[in-house]
Amino acid sequence: MAADDDAPDPIEDAAARWAVEQDAGLTDEGIAALEQWLGSDSRHPPAFEKARAAWRFMGHPAIRSEVAQRRLSEPPLPGYPPVGRPGGKRKWIAPAIAASIALVVVGTIRDWPTALQSDAMTATGEQRTLTLADGSQVRLNTDSAISIDYQTDRRIVHVLKGEAAFSVARDPQRPFSVEAKGGSTTALGTRFIVDRHADTTQVTVTQHSVRVAAPGFGASTAIVKEGQSVAYGKSGIGSIHAIDANAASAWTRKRLVFVDQPLRDVVAELNRYHPGFIVIIGTDLGDRRVSGIFRTNNPVAALDTLQASLKLGSTRLTDRVIFIHR
Fold first, then answer.
1. Domains in the chain, start-ordered, CATH in brackets?
2. FecR protein domain spans which residues (predicted)?
């Protein structure tokens, strides 16, 4: 049986947590346990040094904000019983350890509440194409979920989270609509993409046209044509604007296209496909402009290319936790 590349590495796991505990201040018992662990295997010291290098960046405000949202239980360190210690650093040690473990050795934690509601769901970095009962096709992007509600007089697909591209089979007797965040997008013989964000839903048309309605936000409607995009949210439907349909649908071909985009936006998009944690250290670096075409199924390779072309450095705790800096 082939090894699972995403399986937890117990050495990297322990090294990451030892680095955090050492930074917080070890007791005499903890120092002895760390020394014993370092001397018990020749692989432990280099793993520990690598973890310490990555941990230097963990105090950055952007990272603290991110790790504060993570939740994961902490198994005890090898040979060191979990003993609470006073001190300011200890206040955020738990979520920081949780983040390093979650991102380095566990990856994404499945969204079970959404999974229970969905008929189809993808993990981070996964894409999936479904053929529905009427012959329509749906391609789910990374970390996305839908539920299907086909009835005798209508066809409804709910985007529960993430992004989905639709290719609709014609059936004049049963309109095809996609619902997300209280609004709906009805196909008028078409191909289109619905991307559900936290506050808004983006509708992009790649063939023919759709009717977008946001009845919960002032009963506004709009006809969006091929090569156009529009967003709706609590304030209603925004302005319709032209887009590059080929670039907008590139993810359906496992590609990401960027034309003169800020590095922070590019990294944010790569993070959608990366089962880990990529952070830019330094606000000015995020302003650097980027153009390129990258594969969705290898965000780390895309990051390597960006790093080389922009002459940037990186510190990595495996390929799961990556800090981009000068």
1. 10-106 (no CATH), 112-246 (2.60.120.1440), 254-325 (3.55.50.30)
2. 121-210
